[in-house]
Amino acid sequence: MTGQGKSSTAQRNALPDASEEPRDFDDLGGIYRLISALIGVAEDGEDATRTLSRARQLLDDFTRERTLKISLQNRIFSLARSSSIRLRPPEAKFDVTYIAPKDDEPPVMLLIVLHGFGDGKAALGKMAEKMQLPGVACLVLQGPHRLPSELLPAGGEEIGYYWFDNIDWARGGEPLTRRDESLERASLESLCKLSGYINETLIGTVGWTSSEIAFLGVGQGGTLALEIGRRMEKEFAGFFVLNPDELPLGCPEEKRRVPQRVVLVSGREDGAPSFSSVRSIESELASEGDMAQLHEQPGKAMDVLKDRNGKGEIFMRFIASRLAAVRMRSLGAEEVN
């Protein structure tokens, strides 16, 4: 059942009926042999983590029958969850880039990376690939909306994306401010889509817990990350946010929200937002119960992601502390505030 030279009849015999649950899934080897038979890849001896990771990769190439593919996908992720193995997420509502931890070791923490207004996932994806943090998988998402083509420079295929409208295009690009109904509606729509993806796919399907998920956000992406922390009523591993825009939503008044650990960074050379604006966000988050820290950089805020002349120390300290907290939780210990 393993080589490409096997007849199509033999392959058909290996397939369960598309309307039924797949058979022969008694162990990890069974599911791997079935997928190998489907696409003609020879099986080999691998441990559970590598077997499921490879099966997950092979699943992307399997397009014969969507019903069967979904059933196979559900079984693969079910087996992975039962073994506490965190696989690369399945196809998403977002355009995403997944970067495995250094040396392909099993991930302990997931870092969701959200770009700023008018940017895209390409630059931050390349940065994440260069960092390749040990024990940390990175998931770089791209905003669902795009600026009009006439506003983009030549060769700007990888940029121009954003998360929600915070500009009044009818008034010549005037920024929208809090309490504007259109801003609230747009940000809530984006928030609902991202929180649904986190709940249904990352937590429900892959098996991550919220306390194993951290965020790195830039500009509008950082603002969206902060709103996730304010609205989802889950404790996350932490938030590292560079130059966030004004928070578009007020804190829910009906209940005290879950406090988060937040690091904010403002750069003197960035121009906007101003340090005082970011400090106002820090004060608001602290008043809502967050453990918020604010750092002002002499250069640009993005410099903290570049490990040059010690500028990356703030970010690496954040990653190290959040990773240590996740490991402590896995051992049953609680983090001291």
Automatic annotation (TrEMBL):
Native species of this protein?
Perkinsus olseni (Perkinsus atlanticus)
Regions of biased composition (Polar residues) lie at 1-12
Taken from the record, one Pfam family name reads Abhydrolase_2
Fetch the Gene3D superfamilies from UniProt. Answer: alpha/beta hydrolase
* InterPro entries named among the record's database cross-references: AB_hydrolase_fold (IPR029058), PLipase/COase/thioEstase (IPR003140)
Question: Where does the record place the region Disordered?
Answer: 1-23
Quote the protein name from its UniProt record: Phospholipase/carboxylesterase/thioesterase domain-containing protein
Give an example GO molecular function.
Answer: hydrolase activity
Q: Where is the Phospholipase/carboxylesterase/thioesterase domain?
A: 104-242
